[in-house]
Amino acid sequence: MKVKCISRAEEDFTRERSQDLQRVFRNFNPILRPLERAVEYQRAVNAVKLDKIFARPFIGAMDGHIDAVSCMAKNPNHLKGIFSGSMDGDIRLWDIASRRTICQFPGHQGAVRGLSASTDGRVLVSCGTDCTVRLWNVPDSSVMNMDESSDGTTEPLAVYVWKNAFWAVDHQWDGAQFATAGAQVDIWDHNRSEPIRSFEWGKDTVISLRFNPGEPNILATSSSDRSITLYDLRLSTPVRKLIMKTKTNALCWNPMEPMNFTAANEDCNCYSYDARKLEEAKNVHKDHVSAVMDIDYSPTGREFVTGSYDRTIRIFPYNGGHSREIYHTKRMQRVFCVKFTCDATYVVSGSDDTNLRLWKAKASEQLGVIVPRERKKHEYNEALKKSYGNLPEIKRINRHRHLPKAIYKARSLRLTITNAAKKKDDRRRAHSAPGSMPIQSQRKKRIIKEVE
Amino acid sequence: MYRDSRVVWGGISEKKKVKNFTLNKQISNWAKMSILDEEEESKPQQVIRSIDKEMMDDLDALYKRTDELDLKHELDLKQKKYERGDGVKLEGLKDKKLRGQLAVREELIGQSANVAAKAEKWLNSVNTGYLEAEGIEKTWNYKNQDIVRSVDLLSSKKAMDLVLPELGPYTMDYTANGRYMAMAGRKGHIAIIDTQTLKQIKEFQVRETVRDVAFFHNELYFAAAQKKYTYIYNNHAIELHCLKEHGAVQKLQFLRNHFLLATINKFGQLRYQDVTTGFMVSNFRTGLGRCDVMQVNPFNAVVGLGHSCGKVTMWKPTSAVPLVKMQCHHGTISAIAHHPGGNLMATAALDGKIKLWDLRKFEVLKTYFRHATTLDFSQNGLLAIGNGSRVQIWKDNGDQDYGRYMTHDIAKGYQVGEAKFQPYEDVLCLGHTMGISTILVPGSGEANFDTFVANPFETKKQRREKEIKALLDKLPPETVMLNPTKIGTLKPARKKEQPSQKELEAEKEDAVVAVKLAPRKKKTKGRSKPSKIESKKQESIMKAKRPYLDQQMKEEESRKKLRVTEEVQLPKALARFARKKAAMS
Fold it and tell me: What is the pLDDT of residue B6?
């Protein structure tokens, strides 16, 4: 007879001293874990609910301006700093970590409309309605790290006065040139008091402009004649123009796919375009209920943030039709400018109520140092949410957002309007000759024409 | 050659041995080391040595390869278990992106299964028990006393007899980790025993009939079905709750993942109560009379009930009608047992049969002619069958062909009431009229426990943490279903819709053509007149058309009905017109 029974000596399975770690034994046999899919599903539900509980996106307001914040610029060379300009001509440099003003740049007589920092982070360019372009020396990081702020003010490096009010400025990503927008698009050099060249296509005011992050000589502008125009600095004339049914307030290039840009439109939507193929939008991002005022891409290129006249901020995936997140507070008024920070962790917004607000890019993300075990838990939860995210209950919890009443009402009103328009269109189509009213896709609907 | 090298190996330093030692290539390394050593010492023989070395290398490679192949085969077999079914078939997929994503996922699943298989191979510290016969001996002829004598001291202590003649017959329940046992005598004696130390945790007398006990999620709480009501006690024998709603409960079962206490009472009422909130989840009348056979399927938490009419019904807390009703036997069901894998069920009845059922097809797999009052499956799939004073343990000989493995007779006159395998131990516990006895059944229990699933050596802190975790993972009653693996998967595609008008028309045409073309039957007298032939043909054509015409008429009628109801549902303002129209027509 050959016989053996399971025999476990207690000392082999328990710790010797109380200081020792508990001994852990694993057996991954699926039979020992019945109902594992149900348990995983339950955990996924819990994870989504926990996300809701921990969703506290608002970190704090940065108070200091005495008029509406009109524009912002991030410092590509310094993570903590952000510049903001206001309608009364005040420019401030903020420390995001301590949410204090570090430095002020006085000088503008009218509203500051454009701010931009050079890629090396040394020079700040500002322009405004007082027809001046000002270059400023950006204080170095040692000033930023000072505990006690001296509330330092800085003198401009240079002041260039020009013929017309300016609406926007953007610095080249690689090079010493910058462009301003106003009655026309002017290209400036740091060392010249006059623009080195000017572009004009149509008589209307150019209201926003952005250089391409991949190709330093290409820039896109939008103007009040409802057009989006592409320029190449190497050519003598603008390259291409796209006319839409409504005005584009701002645009931003995708830093990871620099042929694509997204335009924040007056008709509450954002339109993603491929700069090489302007006849059709790549994507229409809907959700805002009022004009979209500003847009900024995350450095990862996977999502972008928009600020709207409806007093909310939304975060969209770069390829998704609807926003994944909406931020709002009672006190936040019309949002004029938004920026993603350079580490893609935070979002800064500037609004009519003179405050800058700091938000988390992921509402329920845990900040600070995370213990490895904690991180593993987060990763596990993320994986669960990913694999069970399409189930109705989890989807519902994940998508649910509390909306201010005004937004909620406006949204349902917009839905009624669009449905009515669609119904009317359908009826017209049904009563007209077949083929005389082809169905137009949403991506093309708002485009009037493309001009070469 | 080989032996030579072994001899030389004896001389090399201890340090080198340790350094080069690996489990897989043990032998080949021994050989290699010896050659290296010798080369250093004896240079003149270098030529011969080099030839030898080549041979040696070949041999090494051979050993290595066969080792690796064996190992790979073994691991592949193990890996299968952890893959949880077949992978996705990627060939038919047109979506490239999805295909890529799925391919990555499949690879990850393969990797984790591989890691789990390796962990099982190398890290499992305890070996499963076994009992093997030598020569012409048979395993079922061994007496349990002999087995107790032959196993190690620690194991032999686990076999015991508690003689409690006055208060029996006894029933018992184990905690999930198998550490604690609650036993209850019919006459009101309840005790909790630590099976590791064989010490009694608590013992008390409730002075009324106790029919069943069931532990909750850990050893701190348990329920006892007593004469009139069910009570919940803690491990200090303090009565925490009296569950009056359940009535005179016959059997208790605790659904561990759902924290539900399932009871069946004298009148055949099945109740589920949530023990965390106290909420009565459901209350069903089985309508099949008194019932005292209840067993939870551990795989899907479906409760199986055995009735006196020979039916087995399966229940979930969210449906008032049973999920399954099976006429299993022609006599009162006396016992049910579920295999931990979930697809196999054993039933026994007073008609003297034991049947094994495939719960995927609900078909009987095997029928054995044998009486049984109690059945139980162990973690490793052994089946204990108790009847009278005799207990048999059956083992799967492949293909669900259960055969004798062990037999055990308790003293004559003792009647086995309940047999239960202890989780994570090779022990079978028998509750009988004269107390409780445990016998050793080598190979019944799972040898390796998982600390995070059920830990027999749990500390107080671990127990507390586990309780919190279990509560966080508590499943809602809706997750009890026959196939719980389909949670989170896609709904199967709907069956094809009804054929369209055109298709029906074509079908009709085909039928008519087939009739027309059919060869005429053999001539019989008086039936070959042309008029007769023609009328016969027409008749058969009409016969072929008939079902289609019938269907058409039926559809039209239903459409008419629909129209009438639509008219009734017209808006108020238009209702008067509808009535007029109806009157006109």
Answer: 34
Q: Do residues A252 and A219 touch, judged by C-beta distance below 8 A? A: no
Residue type, B86: D
Name the DSSP class of B381: S
Q: Which fold is adopted by the domain B139-484?
A: Methylamine Dehydrogenase; Chain H (2.130.10)
- 3-state DSSP: chain A helix, strand, coil percent, rounded to 5? 20, 35, 45
Position B46 confidence tier, pLDDT thresholds 50, 70, 90: low
Does B84 contact A30 at a Cβ distance shorter than 8 Å?
yes
CB atoms within 10 A of CB B153: 7
Query: What residue segments make up the domains of chain A, in order of their start?
Result: 61-363
| ipTM here | 0.82
User: Where is average pLDDT lowest: A82-86, B201-205, B397-401, B457-461?
Assistant: B397-401
CA–CA gap between residue B302 and residue B345 (Å, rounded): 12
Distances B527 to A136, B532, B538, B544 between C-alpha atoms, Å: 116, 6, 15, 21
Cis peptide before B169 (omega within 30 of 0): yes
Contact of A168 with A129, CB cutoff 8 Å = no
Checking if the pLDDT of B181 tops 60, the result is: yes
Is there a contact between B442 and A25 if contact means CB atoms under 8 Å apart? no
Pairing status of strand A152-153 against strand A100-104: parallel
Q: What is the pTM of this model?
A: 0.82
- 8 Å CB contact of A1 and B340: no
What is the tens place of the pLDDT at every residue in A141-182?
666 555 554 556 788 889 999 999 999 999 999 888 999 999
* Sequence-separated (6 or more) residues with CB below 8 Å from residue A336: A68, A69, A70, A71, A293, A294, A307, A350, A351, A352
Nearest CA in chain A to B117: A28
Q: Where are the alpha helices (DSSP H) in B151-264?
A: 153-156
The per-residue pLDDT for range A243-284, each reduced to its tens digit, is 999 999 999 999 999 999 999 999 999 999 999 999 999 999
Residue ranges covered by each domain of chain B: 2-123, 139-484, 501-584
Interface test with B, best of A1, A2, A4, A6 (most B CBs within 10 A): A6
Q: Are B434 and B441 in contact (CB under 8 A)?
A: no
Q: How far apart are CA A263 and CA A253, in angstroms?
A: 9
pLDDT digits 0-9 by tens, A295-341: 999 999 999 999 999 999 999 999 999 999 999 999 999 999 999 99
The predicted pLDDT at position B570 comes to 62
Element (H, E) at B511: helix B501-517
- H helices present in A310-449, as ranges: 372-388, 392-399, 405-431, 442-445
Contact (Cβ atoms closer than 8 angstroms) between residue A268 and residue A414 = yes
The torsion angles phi and psi of B86, rounded to 5 degrees, stand at -75, 160
Q: How many CA atoms lie within 13 A of B547 on its CB side?
A: 8
CATH topology (fold) of A61-363: Methylamine Dehydrogenase; Chain H (2.130.10)
* Contact residues, chain A to chain B, C-beta under 8 Å: 1-10, 12-14, 22-35, 37-43, 46, 387-388, 391
Contact A137, A105 (CB under 8 A): no
| Candidate from B155, B257, B462 with C-beta closest to A7 | B155
Q: What is the pLDDT of residue B551?
A: 87
Cβ-defined contacts of B85-92 (< 8 Å, 24+): B85/B485
SS3 content of chain B, % helix, strand, coil (to 5): 35, 30, 40
From chain A, pick out residues whose CB is under 8 angstroms from the CB of B488: 37, 40-41, 387-388, 391
Between helix B572-584 and helix B530-568 the angle, nearest 10°, is 150
Q: What is the mean pLDDT of residues B386-396?
A: 94
Spell out which residues of chain B touch residue A29, defining contact as CB-CB under 8 Å: 81, 120, 446, 450
Provide φ and ψ at B298, rounded to 5°: -65, -20
